[in-house]
């Protein structure tokens, strides 16, 4: 038992040291700093989302929130990853070939899990079906991402863009990868490959992760809130009261203080999660 405990301690220390080395690298500090820049999301919402919602409310027209959230998250992810704003979310709702290509590629990949390999090879050989859509989608994705990479390298070459430690517009993930491709000079640890193929694959993965997951979560959240009027009214009351509170208000200090984390399940008591919980379940939960 003592030997096993000693091995576990060594593994834990190795993991801690590995995380320490990662946090020392400038590129990882820039990545963490990048995704904590709330003002980027705030600015994109102020310039894109709010005008669209105001215009729709004044016109009294129907709005596809899933499409709106996909455009918003696409703009946000593209801004943080590449440093460029495609401005997909605007009043005219422009056509976005990149987003459409992503949808076609994801659909084709889904069918690859259903159709037999022989059918997929037959589609690729004759050039039709989902395999043809996937091939066309890859061309669009490579073209758009390649354009962003070329623009970024040209900006860095001309000195018009550089990675900074503040909240500047030049702080983006693509710039971090390109500028830190030589790795850490002191440790030689974690050298970043800045070849175009590596950059394209990395950008594509981040764009897919940032667009689909967040937009789906936002869409479901709005649907759940609108399905529970009691919760919706409480949220409105909280927002209204927050506007009325002052910074030096004693009531505000009470609302902003920290509370102990509520234990949903007591460690000493195990009870059924069916009959009793169903009786106590309410819309707020």
Automatic annotation (TrEMBL):
Its cofactor is heme. Keywords: Iron, Membrane, Metal-binding, Oxidoreductase, Transmembrane, Transmembrane helix. GO terms for molecular function: heme binding; iron ion binding; monooxygenase activity; oxidoreductase activity, acting on paired donors, with incorporation or reduction of molecular oxygen. The chain crosses the membrane at residues 6-23. InterPro entries: Cyt_P450, Cyt_P450_E_grp-I, Cyt_P450_sf. It comes from the Eukaryota. SUPFAM superfamilies: Cytochrome P450 (SSF48264). It holds the Pfam family p450. Belongs to the cytochrome P450 family. PANTHER family: CYTOCHROME P450. This is OLC1v1008980C1. It comes from Oldenlandia corymbosa var. corymbosa. The lineage of its organism: Eukaryota, Viridiplantae, Streptophyta, Embryophyta, Tracheophyta.
């Amino acid at each position: 038992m003592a030997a096993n405990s000693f091995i576990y301690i060594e593994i834990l220390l190795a993991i801690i040291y590995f995380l320490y080395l990662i946090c020392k690298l400038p590129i990882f500090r820039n990545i963490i700093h990048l995704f904590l820049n709330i003002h980027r999301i705030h600015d994109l919402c102020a310039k894109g989302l709010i005008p669209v919602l105001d215009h729709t409310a004044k016109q009294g027209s129907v709005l596809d929130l899933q499409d709106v959230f996909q455009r918003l998250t696409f703009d946000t992810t593209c801004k943080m990853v590449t440093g460029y704003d495609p401005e997909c979310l605007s009043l005219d709702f422009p056509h976005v070939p990149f987003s459409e290509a992503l949808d076609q590629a994801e659909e084709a990949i889904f069918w690859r899990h259903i159709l037999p390999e022989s059918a997929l090879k037959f589609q690729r050989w004759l050039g039709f079906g989902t395999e043809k859509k996937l091939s066309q989608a890859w061309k669009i994705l490579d073209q758009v991402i390649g354009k962003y990479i070329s623009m970024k390298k040209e900006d860095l070459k001309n000195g018009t863009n550089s990675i900074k430690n503040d909240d500047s517009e030049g702080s983006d993930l693509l710039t971090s990868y390109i500028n830190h491709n030589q790795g850490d000079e002191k440790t030689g640890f974690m050298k970043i490959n800045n070849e175009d193929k590596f950059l394209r694959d990395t950008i594509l993965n981040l764009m897919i992760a940032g667009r689909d997951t967040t937009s789906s979560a936002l869409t479901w959240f709005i649907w759940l809130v609108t399905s529970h009027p009691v919760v919706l009214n409480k949220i409105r009351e909280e927002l209204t009261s927050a506007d009325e509170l002052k910074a030096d208000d004693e009531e505000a200090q009470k609302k902003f203080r920290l509370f102990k984390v509520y234990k949903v399940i007591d460690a000493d008591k195990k009870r059924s999660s069916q009959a009793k919980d169903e009786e106590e379940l309410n819309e707020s939960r």
